[in-house]
Design goal:
With 250 residues, the protein is of the alpha/beta class. The chain folds into two domains: 71 residues, no CATH class; 176 residues, Rossmann fold, CATH 3.40.50. Helices cover 40% and strands 22% of the residues. The protein has nine helices and nine strands. The protein has a five-stranded parallel sheet with strand order 7-6-5-8-9, sandwiched between helices. It has a four-stranded antiparallel sheet with strand order 1-2-3-4.
């Protein structure tokens, strides 16, 4: 239940509001806005009656919100943070919440972050400074030098599911030696798959475990009654594209 517990979410948001300040760099900026009166969508569910009275941190580009440290962001990051271990690779720095949480884990030795925007890196460093456990590489993640990773996470999809997650998986698995790979929204994707479709796909064990844990938490919290499945045709398209790659890896 923890990722869907309102007290846990409030504590996380309040803690990082104390760590992240409003600032700007070029076309990018960090802004805080109170959530009162705004409907905050959860991860895998929609509850129109739910309201939070919290200062929500946003990362903006040209005054357009790219991401927010909202309940959805915290809920969707929970299993990623939990499963991260050893040497971790991350594509997409964002506000730095996931990077910081993962780096704090004793089971994590090093975090290598690939971020294409120099401005986003500057904003992050203004708030968090340097950390011996974290190495940030500015540039195209798909043209980086090859590395070995125990856990790898891609967070560049702006809360959307499309074939890019498959294309990126194929490129990054080829570029790096990765033991466990994940991407934003992986649990929602798998839980939206039809049984008769997914049963023929060799799904990585870590994906199944993450999805099972989060489904149980959603059920225990009572939010399961507000569960929102992803669009059926899009899910099937992505699953079939993954099937061609994953089944070849057996």
């Amino acid at each position: 239940m923890k990722p869907y517990d309102q007290n846990f979410i409030s504590q996380e948001i309040q803690e990082y509001n104390g760590l992240i300040n409003e600032c700007t760099c070029g076309d990018y900026g960090i802004l805080k806005e109170n959530s009162l009166g705004h409907k905050l969508q959860g991860y895998m569910y929609e509850n129109e009656q739910e309201e939070y009275n919290l200062p929500i941190i946003q990362l903006l580009k040209d005054k357009v919100s790219l991401m927010r440290l909202s309940p959805k962001e915290i809920q969707s990051s929970y299993e990623i943070i939990k499963f991260a271990k050893g040497k971790v690779g991350i594509v997409g720095l964002g506000l730095g919440y996931v990077v910081q949480k993962i780096a704090k884990k004793s089971q994590v030795e090093q975090v290598i972050v690939y971020e294409i925007s120099e401005e986003v890196i500057s904003l992050y460093k203004q708030n968090f400074g340097e950390n011996n456990k974290i190495k940030i590489i500015q540039g195209d993640a798909f043209k980086a030098n090859s590395e070995c990773f125990d856990f790898f996470y891609v967070d560049i999809y702006e809360y959307k599911l499309d074939l890019k997650v498959v294309e990126d998986y194929k490129k990054l698995i080829k570029l790096h030696d990765i033991k466990e790979y994940s991407f934003w929204g992986i649990e929602h994707f798998l839980l939206s798959c039809k049984y008769e479709d997914i049963v023929w796909v060799y799904v990585p064990e870590v994906w199944i475990e993450m999805s099972k844990h989060l489904y149980t938490a959603l059920d225990d919290s009572g939010y399961i009654k507000y569960y929102k499945q992803l669009e059926e045709n899009k899910v099937k398209e992505v699953l079939l594209a993954f099937k061609e790659i994953l089944n070849d890896e057996i």
